[in-house]
Structures are given as structure tokens and as C-alpha cells.
Design goal:
Layout: E1 24-27, E2 32-35, E3 38-39, H1 40-46, H2 49-58, H3 64-74
Antiparallel strand pairs: 1-2, 2-3
Length: 75
């Protein structure tokens, strides 16, 4: 698709910061996505949904006691 906008304009959101967040960092050029300081590939391989949700809500992975409490609350 060819960009027909003004000189120097970019197609779509290429190179544009749409929002800033302390939760997630994305480096599209390197193919990296970091949630709460953890690489998304590590989270996918080693953390379950509840652990990842806790990380996003509280800024840290849960201890076993915190995870047990969260699982009780989710029932």
C-alpha cells in the first residue's frame, strides 16, 4: 500500500506512540514485548493466566499464598 499523504507522512501508526504505559514495553524492531518487567515469551512459557493477571494488577508476580488467595477470589 502506498502512502499518498503529505511528504514525510507515515502510513497507519508506524513510528507513532499511541499511548504511554508503565505496564508494557514493546520494541517492534527487536520483536520484544515486556509486561511488568518480564519478557512475554518467559511469561507464556512459565506463568499461567492467573499469575500474569496478578502481575498486571499488582506489578509483581504472586507468591504461592497470593496466588492461592487470588484463585479463591476468582471462584
Amino acid at each position: 500500500m502506498q502512502n499518498k499523504g503529505p511528504e514525510g507522512a507515515k502510513a497507519g501508526l508506524e513510528g507513532i506512540v499511541a499511548a504511554k504505559t508503565a505496564i508494557c514495553y514493546i520494541d517492534g524492531l527487536e520483536g520484544r514485548m515486556i509486561y511488568g518487567g518480564y519478557d512475554i515469551h518467559d511469561l507464556a512459557a512459565h506463568a499461567n493466566f492467573e499469575e500474569t493477571a496478578y502481575l498486571l494488577w499488582h506489578g509483581a508476580l504472586p507468591t504461592q499464598a497470593q496466588l492461592d488467595s487470588l484463585n479463591i477470589d476468582l471462584v
